[in-house]
Design a protein that fits this description.
The chain has helices at about 25-35, 60-75, 95, 110-120, and strands at about 10-15, 40-45, 85-90, 130, 135-140, 145-150. By secondary structure, the protein is α/β, with parallel strands linked by helices. Strands 1, 2, 3, 4, 5 and 6 form a six-stranded mixed beta sheet that branches.
Length: about 160
């Protein structure tokens, strides 16, 4: 038997890439934001490309729709979530495969604005959410990464 988290009240929702090179993303989330799925304070959506499809609706319409539905579902069913954290990373294989390599960080403002637009425009999402994007970078050898929060002007 494995443990469960009864009565979880998550405060954060993260959208991260399922890239196998980044198994420590959850440690970054715990260290930077002080929350974890292990104790029920975070919901983490793992998907190839992370939040990338939210900046590329024309290029990946189904990916955009999928993530939008997942985010809205998580917010509807977890009214304690008030922070959404899209996390993109350097050298993302999804970006490379879609011909937009190198745009992982520059997409974060578009991703953040889109999240604000569809969460505030949905009457079933009752809480106001703050978007706090982050970017992960590999070291020169590619065997470690560091992460930082990215400031996005929302006006």
């Amino acid at each position: 038997m494995y443990p469960t988290v009864l009565g979880a009240k998550p405060t954060h929702l993260f959208i991260v890439c399922s890239d196998i090179r980044l198994p420590a993303q959850e440690r970054f989330i715990r260290g930077r934001f002080g929350v974890s799925k292990d104790n029920g304070t975070a919901v983490i959506i793992h998907v190839l490309g992370g939040a990338g499809p939210l900046a590329r609706k024309e290029q990946d319409h189904s990916g955009y729709e999928y993530l939008q539905q997942q985010i809205l579902f998580a917010l509807r069913h977890n009214p304690t979530i008030t922070t959404v954290g899209p996390i993109n990373h350097q050298a993302c294989l999804w970006y490379g495969g879609n011909g937009v390599a190198g745009e992982e960080e520059t997409d974060l403002p578009v991703i953040s604005r889109n999240i604000v637009t569809f969460t505030t425009g949905d009457p079933t999402v009752r809480q106001k959410v703050i978007v706090r994007p982050s970017f992960l970078e590999f070291n020169e050898g590619g065997n470690r990464f560091s992460g930082r929060e990215v400031t996005i002007p929302m006006a």
